[in-house]
Amino acid sequence: MTETDTQAQNPLTRTVAGAELPVPGTYAIDVSHSAVEFVVRHLGLAKVRGRFGTFDGAIEIADRPEESTVTVDVEVASIDTHEPNRDEHLRTNTFFDVPNHPTMSFRNTRVSGSGTSWIVEGDLTLRGVTNPVTLDVTFEGAGGDPWGGQRIAFSASGEIDREQWGMTWNQALETGGFVIGKKVKLELEVEAVKLA
Q: What is the pTM of this model?
């Protein structure tokens, strides 16, 4: 099937190296249908989940997928771990330091991969510190919505060491280990609407 044939079936996709991928254009992230979430170990046992409720960003799909760009800005004060006291602690200078650094941002620096599985490398800036982050990204598909919009969707995951951004607070346990894990797993679900 040629790229033209594929576009006739779905105007939001094209065939690149045998895989169905989004057509070039600018896509705005739909916050109401997207999620920026994370997972951290507590006491070396349970996984505590949290999310950020306020963020925005854009995806620029290039003619060559490897030249695509992603920009995301997150309001750190919107953190929600389902425990208000913990959220307030996370907003202090011990962790996110919201008064001095209200925004966390991601800018990609490299895209590589094939098929529907890609690696997106980029810079994550948090607390005024920038470090590289690698995300495993899967293209989930494309389609129209009931209001005439054209949408694409991705899932992404990665892992960071929070101490690289200066979030070193912890408490040692008498049995060994620490209250909070250093590793933080990132889990992203992104739906975006085509602008141009």
A: 0.85
